[in-house]
Amino acid sequence: MHSHKDTLLLTPEEMGQVDRAAAASGLSSYGLMERAGQAVAACALRRFAGALRFVILCGPGNNGGDGYVAARALQAAGAEIAVHALGDPAALRGDAATAFGQFTGLVAPLADYRPRTGDVVVDALFGAGLARDLAADVVSIIESINESAIPVLAVDLPSGIDGRTGAVRGAAFQAAASVTFMCRKPGHLLLPGRMLAGALEIFDIGIPERILRAHGGEIGVNAPATWRDVLPIETGAGHKYVRGHLAVFSGPATATGAARLSAMAGLRAGAGLVTLLSPTAALPANAAQLTAVMLKPIDGEGDLAALLEDARLKTFVLGPGFGDGERARRYAGLIASGERRLVLDADGITAFRDGPQALFDLFEGPAPRLVLTPHDGEFARLFPDIAKNSPLSKIERAEKAAARSNGVVVLKGADTVIAAPDGRALVNDNAPPWLATAGSGDVLAGLVGAHLAQGMPAFEAAASAVWRHGEAGRLAGEGLTAETLIDALTGLDQLK
């Protein structure tokens, strides 16, 4: 059974609100800290059974309080421990002070720690709430531990990772594993935080899900539970037009491969018909490579306008290998009329770099009909001011771009973010590293187009396509090509 917290992402600020609401509801805040610290200790003993000594590094806040609880639990389990504190533990306040008061062992200054063989470090210096650069002395300690290759178990997030953005604030531990509580934070999924957090364990410390729901925002983890209810329903009464007609624009004769990848991906992803709209000069190159995908000559606006008279043709992919920026702008203008939907990728995005607002105005309306699929460089061409706003997280950049563009933004990368104009956003986490290969983005554009053609709302169509793309990459395995990625696409029934 799906639980909301399985896919929920809470920013550090929202998690603070949850903690305060939990205490206001009658839950013991120190009881929550006790359960958190006990969970850390249990994880340490389970994951590092051969450790000769657990070294708990405790910070000046509640993360340090979790550390003191973990130290007491590890000591009670018979493990050898050493505790080192950043700052004066006597200055702790609230629950952290209570946790320190219940720990009866010795506490040495952080600067006194020297790594030794057999150590496992429990990092309880700073949690997900870190939003400033670390002091030089803390950076030095982190770097020395990283260089020693001693295993690190992080409490919440590796110290040095900004929990809102995933950025490194001066230096950060390379953790073997992290233990967080109730749900993930953006820093667990956004790079580089995701690469530094190691294996992630999420422990339920007893905060009711209703409180998480009340204080959680509109961001989450991209997973089938978030969109499976709007997947197309396949019945025996269906036919090819019911499953949607997708049209993909081809580039010139010397650059036809990208569009064919999009078209083939769209067909494999479930569109009932896929037509490649090709310049006449490129027809021979395309015809030699296509069988199930149909081919239609389109040499200008007149040809496209005539094609658009077919009311069944409502979904288009424009950009992969297209090349001609002026023609791309004219085509987008024609497609925008009516209720047609457009996936704009690659050269289609670049075509509007000098006037992105003209594109956004074309697709203004209550329900998004435009899906943009930029990588970081393409994103900066349409949204230069947002791209340069370094304090923003990747999630926040995508959210602002979606609101401005009246469209769904798929900001690609190993930590792809899908954002809607209404503020919803999902972070994808199932893409293997070998998915970064030539043509992979073209396949994704075709997937999004196929889902749109089958009637899915734009946000869910994009999110499910991104997840399906990652799953196909996992199934295809290391060394995949764009062609084998298409072959690995599973059916819609596997997404439910």
From TrEMBL:
A Pfam short name: Carb_kinase
Residue positions binding K(+): N63, D123, S159
E.C. number: 4.2.1.136, 5.1.99.6
GO biological process: metabolite repair; nicotinamide nucleotide metabolic process
Catalytic activity: (6R)-NADPHX = (6S)-NADPHX; (6S)-NADPHX + ADP = AMP + phosphate + NADPH + H(+); (6S)-NADHX + ADP = AMP + phosphate + NADH + H(+); (6R)-NADHX = (6S)-NADHX
Residues spanning the signal sequence: none
Alphabetized UniProt keyword annotations: ATP-binding, Isomerase, Lyase, Metal-binding, Multifunctional enzyme, NAD, NADP, Nucleotide-binding, Potassium
Record-annotated YjeF N-terminal domain positions: 15-213
Cofactor: K(+); Mg(2+)
Cofactor: binding comment: Binds 1 potassium ion per subunit.
A GO molecular-function descriptor: ADP-dependent NAD(P)H-hydrate dehydratase activity
Listed InterPro entries: Carbohydrate_kinase_pred_CS, CARKD, Nnr, Ribokinase-like, YjeF_N_dom, YjeF_N_dom_sf
Presence of the UniProt keyword ATP-binding in the record: yes
Binding-site residues, (6S)-NADPHX: 62-66, 127-133, 156, 258, 321, 375, 442
CDD domains found in the cross-reference section: YXKO-related (cd01171)
UniProt keyword Signal present: no
Binding site for AMP: K412, G413, A414, D415, T416, G441
Span of domain YjeF C-terminal: 223-496
Entry's family note: Belongs to the NnrE/AIBP family. Belongs to the NnrD/CARKD family.
Quaternary structure, from the entry: Homotetramer.
Protein purpose: Catalyzes the dehydration of the S-form of NAD(P)HX at the expense of ADP, which is converted to AMP. Together with NAD(P)HX epimerase, which catalyzes the epimerization of the S- and R-forms, the enzyme allows the repair of both epimers of NAD(P)HX, a damaged form of NAD(P)H that is a result of enzymatic or heat-dependent hydration.
Annotated protein name in UniProt: Bifunctional NAD(P)H-hydrate repair enzyme
Organism: Shinella sumterensis
Gene: nnrD
